Amino acid sequence: MNILFVNYGDFTSNSLNHIGGFANALSAKGHACIVAVPSGKDTLSSVVGPAFTAALYNELLENPALFPDARAADVIHAWTPREFVRKFVISYQRAAGRSARLLVHLEDNEEHLISSFSGNAIGELRTMGFGALDAVVSDRLPHPVRHRTFLRLADVVTVIVDRLREFVPPGIPCELLQPGVDAEYLAGVKADPALRKELGLSGSERLIVFTGSNTFANEPDMLELYRAVALLNTRGSPTRLLRTGISRPEFQASLTAELKAHVTDLGFIAKARLPKLLAAADVLVQPGRPGPFNDYRLPSKLPEFLASGRPVVLPPTNIALLLRDGVDALFLKSGSPEDIADCCERLFRDPTLAQSLGKAGAAFARKHFDLAANSDRLLKIYESALAKPARASWDHLRATAGSDLTAAARDLTEALGTVKGHPELVALAADLADIVGAEDARAANAVAAQDKVRLRLEESVRHLELQRDLTNQHAQNLAEKIELQERHIKLQKKLSAKHIQNLEARINDIERISRSLSERAANDAARAAKAAAESALEHSKLVARILEMDAELVAREKRLKAIIQSRSYKLTAPLRDIERLFKAGAPEEKIAPASPAPTKAAETAASSPPGPDAAPASYHYTFNVDHPLTWSTASNKLLILGWCYENSGAPIRGIRALFAGETFEGVYGSKRLDVLASTGMKQAEYSGIKIDVRTHLGDHPLVVEVLHDDGWHPLFQKMVHVGKPGDPTELSEYEKWCR
């Protein structure tokens, strides 16, 4: 079966909650379903897992046989009799060349909507001429007269609540069609504490959720809900209203700062995100009160509210007529802000009642809003309509290019033809039918051409606006990128000039330090000579020690010559000299050891292997940290580079860092020829260390340990400050010196 659903708006409209579910369910049964919209085909992304085909009105009028089997629709289900929909259906039936069965769905008191929008009573609107009507009504609403003649063309009228049967013309079959909720859509979704944190809710703050757009028709009810939330907070019950959907700018402009203070408006969001929001709610509220608007509708969000298992507060009308107050849901008495606040506070105080209402509401939804069952019922309605002959009015409309007015005049003529004794009425009706048909055909052709052009222009404008927005965004991105590059170039120039100044100052300091070191060396030599003369008794021991040191120096000199003669060493020698001289003149930051600091003599002395009954081995280390230069950082990662070795040559098996309750294994044993060259210790050749530490905000002690055969031993410890990006950081000694 080829089924064409005709919606009055794009895929973000509230009615798509119902149309999308039925179209997906019927597509899963093997039927071909197309959902037609006047514009905004790109909004299909807002529908969860569409299994149907999306099409624009214009696309279907150009190619009525857009279905997979290259045939036109068998059934047209027009969602409301609004002007957009009425004009398209008549044009499609004419373009298709064959008569599809027509069903029209009623979900609102359309006459009340027209009156509210125009500010005129329905009786007044019906007496206006078409020209005057065009000035006060919109194609997005039903026509005061034509929507009734359109309903008379229907093979079946479906209604969302029984009260809408009042608007179905006599003699037209009418069926109740309740919406469906996909059981998998809400299955297994539970309240997520992380979502409350993401929404910025405090621990004691209650959450009311409202998912749905607002229009001129329901804005008075929405205003009552906003006032109720403000009242709850005034009473001392911290409450936040979380809402989604599209709001008219006029409504937003009417809200005071007090009314918006406790509201989080997420705007229109993907339907797939709604289940988590519903599960997080303490209460789901549908504001309103009985009357000509609420009595004849079923808000599209209510089936999902009830199916979510959360307690629901709603007015005692429409679907509430099938619910039990205090059992399946909680009914409002007046719909005032005080009434809404009282019901919410009652549920806040009584979690048992809230849980009971949620379970009973979910059971009601499973019974009345089962998508599979309601889709099967809809399919039977379609099959019943197809079993009957098509209306002859459609053939007449195709032959005369008329519309529903022509069909109504023709039906009147045929009805009077069955009345005997009044041939003049039959003749008059026939004349009127001919006149209406001729005028209607002429007007319909003109309007159809205008609508076709208008729809194309509207769609073109949408695309042009989208292209304009994308172009503007791209231009803005390019401008920001160019500005960033210019700032980067200026910064590089500034840093280069500063670097040159620093190098010049550093060279001057190195020369000064060199002279100071030469003088110090001369003074030290003089003091050493004097000490040698005064220490005659130790002379023999010193001579022996000097001879021993000479031998050691000769061996070291041989090793150094091999390194010095290498090409890499020669290339880096100037930089190494500058660094050595600078470090010698600048004060160094001392790294506190984890255990009591050994004396210099103890630090360099070799440890003897312990005997069988000796105390645990005591290790002494020589080490240096090359990076970081400072122990204050704003990064989420701290890289430690350097070298260390045990003075007596005890093998080091590994290295690790302890930071903020976590342990980070490092790498020990990378080759360090520079350390070997400067110390001459054999164990220094493979003494390099590297540790990656994940940081956390705040001040934390850092402890670095090395592993020997008998276990882990502390190497050094340091207090590390981790700040936020942008916080001032501690300057290194070199940076302090440069400044």
Keywords:
739 residues; alpha/beta; Rossmann fold; Immunoglobulin-like; seven-stranded parallel sheet; six-stranded parallel sheet; elongated
Kindly describe this structure.
With about 750 residues, this protein is of the alpha/beta class. Among the domains are: about 1-180 and about 380-390, Glycogen Phosphorylase B (Rossmann fold), CATH 3.40.50.2000; about 190-365, Rossmann fold (3-Layer(aba) Sandwich); about 590-739, Sandwich (Immunoglobulin-like), CATH 2.60.40. It is about 50% helix and about 15% strand. It has 25 helices and 22 strands. The strands form 4 sheets. A 7-stranded parallel β-sheet has the order 3-2-1-4-5-6-7, with helices on both faces. Helix 3 (about 85-95) crosses helix 18 and helix 7 (about 145-150) crosses helix 19 (about 405-415). The chain is elongated, with a radius of gyration of 43 Å.
Morphology:
elongated
* Class by alpha and beta content: alpha/beta
By CATH, the superfamily of the domain at 2-180 and 378-389 comes out as: Glycogen Phosphorylase B
CATH class (first level) name of the domain at 2-180 and 378-389:
Alpha Beta
In percent, how much strand structure appears in the residues? 15-25%
Summarize the main sheet: 7 strands, parallel
pLDDT averaged over residues: 84
Secondary structure tally: strands:
22
CATH architecture of the domain at 2-180 and 378-389: 3-Layer(aba) Sandwich
Sheet with most strands: strand arrangement: 3-2-1-4-5-6-7
